[in-house]
Amino acid sequence: MKRECFYINGQWQKPIKGGAALPVYSSITGEVFESVPAGTAEDADAAVRAASKALPAWAAMGAAERAKIIGRIAQGLRDRADVIAPLIAEEVGMPLEGARGYQTLRAADALEDIAVLATKIAYEEPLGESLVIREPVGVVAGISPSNFPLLLSLNKVGAALAVGCTMVLKAPETAPGSLFYLADAAEEAGLPPGVLNIITGFGPEIGEPLASHPLVDMISFTGSTGVGKLLLGIGAQTIKRAHMELGGKSAAIVLEDADLDSALPAAIEQAFINAGQVCFAWSRLLVPRAKLARCEEILRDVVSRYVVGDPLDPATTLGPVVTRAATDRVRKFVSQAVSQNARIVTGGIEAPKGLSRGYFLQPTVLSDVDNRMPIAQEEIFGPVVSVIAHDGEDDAVRIANDSVFGLHGAVFSGDHARALGVARRIRTGQVDLNGFKLGMTAPFGGFKQSGLGRELGKFGLEEYLEVKSIQL
Question: How are strands ordered across the β-sheet holding 124-127?
Fold first, then answer.
């Protein structure tokens, strides 16, 4: 499919300077299967000016009326799920069931829910002899990643639009297709022109001009810590509000009283969501040293049951990663770890049998990993878990916290109170007890270099609000 236009000011517009198309590669075959326009700073400027023009009327509209429009957008996405899901599966590699349920339908539900929640905010409240007012921060530059292109975009779009902001959304260059259907749904829902603008292109040509634009009031970015630092530096020149959901190197702690037969499969299942292409993946698995051999035995059995293959095939449980560069990066980390005396329990760097095309990787578990190794310190974004032995609760907490990141984590224990106590000691934005849980109204975000601010629920809405006091 060839797309030639952006969605700016409620219209489909061709790039101002024309220019080359941006090819999008199938994760299944490695071949180009769609293309989108490669925008420039001029296109970013046009989108920002449209958002700025639309801001006063949208901000003045009541939250309930905004919620109705956003609800219609959500329904439009549900109506398009059968088209969106296979597109995301081919772009990103997520098996079709997850691409439909998690990436599309659940994303649409979350979009509608956040808009309804925004109607319950106290936008004005008396405080002594003052009146405290919450108003939209203004024009938001949203920059979303390729691993969950629709879901993570909607986390930004929903919260920002629901409280009265307008947005320019830069689609991920390797997985932009679903956001064109978002534009279709917005147009169909009667969203006023300029409230949501969607553009495509590379980061330096689109993302950086958005971050530096004088009419942009806030940057909302999900992606790598390195790019986040770059955008923060650019935005700092005009003191922009910034929300950053960045990288992670999350640890799942398995205590000696945990049920290994349930804990280890749960940990692997979470770590291999979307072939490990999740910022919150439990890519470090901390297990009791005395039970290391038994843990390896269970892990080998669990991983052997994964079916690697075409994400459009219902039998597949682990699809490819998004790009050739991603496969090369994962293999480099695994090879380096082995050279540093890590041991492959299962998997490896070779392509899975019969899958030489596309961007497929073997699900891999490494043991004898030292937490100082790069594979235990850097985000990999692939189906690789590093097993690290610990010598008790205190040692496990020390290892878990020995990271520049602090996004997610888990504790497995047969004693709930003990697990909760350990969770309190981990310096990370979210900790799950005895299995993966995703509360769409709970705050999500990181400590340390995993980010700034929070998404989801009332906490996510607050990111897009300014507070003003009027002295009466």
Answer: 124-127, 130-136, 465-471
β-bridge partners, 366: 344, 386
CATH topology for 251-441 is Aldehyde Dehydrogenase; Chain A, domain 2 (3.40.309)
pTM listed for this prediction: 0.96
- Per annotation, catalytic residue among 173, 245, 379, 455: 245
Does the annotation mark 379 as catalytic? no
Span 176-208, pLDDT tens digits: 999 999 999 999 999 999 999 999 999 999 999
Q: Would you list the domain boundaries of the chain?
A: 6-246+450-471, 251-441
Domain 6-246+450-471 has CATH 3.40.605.10: yes
Q: pLDDT tens digit string along 383-408?
A: 999 999 999 999 999 999 999 999 99
Joined tokens for residue 196: 């949501």
284 residue type, one letter: R
